[in-house]
Structure formats: C-alpha cells, structure tokens
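[User]
Protein folding is very new to me. Any chance you could explain this protein sequence and its structure tokens? I have pasted everything here:
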Amino acid sequence: MNIQPVILVVEDEEDIAELLRFGLMRAGFAVTWVKNLADARSSVKKVLPDLIMLDWMLPDGQGIEWLHQLRGDERTRPLPIIMLTARAQESDKLKGLEGGADDYMTKPFSPKELVARINNVLRRSAPQHVAQVVEFFGCALNDDDHTLSQAGVVETLGNTEFKLLKFLLTHQNKTFSRTQLLDLVWGDHVYIEERTVDVHVLRLRKILQRFAIEAHLETIRGVGYRWRSAA
C-alpha cells in the first residue's frame, strides 16, 4: 500500500477546488482544501502537508506574500509549493519562481499536466513520497506491497520501517537527527519520544541483516542516523 502524500489546496473558487480535489485524489493524493490564507496558516500550523498548491489572489491577501513567509520560516522552508493562478504574465511567473515557488502553473490548466508537475516537484523535493521501486545493492524496495527483496529473499516491512528505510534511501549520505526523523518520517504533528526512532531503527537493522546490508544504516554518535551509499 502506497503512502498517500497530502496536498494542501489553497483556492477560493469552489469549482476549481473541486476539480483539483477530484483529479488529485484520483491520482492517489490525499487532499486538504482551504479557501483563504487564515485557514491555510491554521492548517500548516497544525500539521505540515507534503505539498502546497497555492493561488495568488485570495480573499484575505496574496498567496505570494504567504509564500515569502513560508520560505522565511525554518519549519516550512523545505515545503514543496506550486503556485496555480490566473496571473499569466511572464513577470508574475518570474516573481513567483524567484519568490520561492517550486513550480508555477496558470489557469486554465490540464489536470494531467498538473499531476505530472506535482510528481516532478515531489521527486526533487520529497522523493520519499513518490511511488516507486527503489533499487540498491541488488535489493528492491517496493511501494506496492512494502517488500524488500533480493535474489529470491523477500521480507515484508511494517509501515514505519518501510517509511524510514525509503526516506533514508532517498536521502543517502545525509545525517538526520532523531527530531528531524520524527518530523520528516512520522510527521511533525505526531507527539512521540525520540527513543521511538531508536526502536524502529533497531527493528529495521534486524530486517537488513537478512540481506547483509545492515552496516549501511549508520549511527552517527551524538547526532542521529544516515544511510551510507558507498559499498
């Protein structure tokens, strides 16, 4: 079962929002829809989405100004953001992209192209949320059934171990603290102890032992964990 990325749609026009909701859910995304910036801020404060689809002109302000605020906040700076707006001037597009948008689309839009753009942005910014088979050291980590396989050996991973391994594999050679892993893998709205990360890393290591690759899941003393890509 794939992990559904959550898209926050910030759009005040109901017909467009409904079109977005239908197309995105059909493509396998979970959708949260808000009509204004106040509700968008409240939603992001409670839980970070995996991507924001942001209109420029909203009833209580300009999306571009909120974009600047998001990029200026350490918690929300890495959030993938696509602007979807009726403002089609080249100067507006440049302003949006230079202001921190990962992509910029104009209305009217093709739902298929929009889904492709979202997947491209997630592939760059948050590859752990893109359905795929990750291959490494002769192994394959499969989104469809949460299995890790190698030369006929197949192990089904629990949901948390799967998400943890996929995150590390898609961010190889980068060290993450326990707090960062809680935010990025479990979600920053989940309130659990940092010790929980150690428990799941231990479980994951036991699984990796079957494939003789557990040494690549490294503990960086005093910091956290990383996946080492070099053989």
Summary: The chain has a mean pLDDT of 88. The domain at 133-227 is CATH 1.10.10.10 (Arc Repressor Mutant, subunit A). The first helix runs from residue 14 to 26. The chain has two domains: 6-129, 133-227.
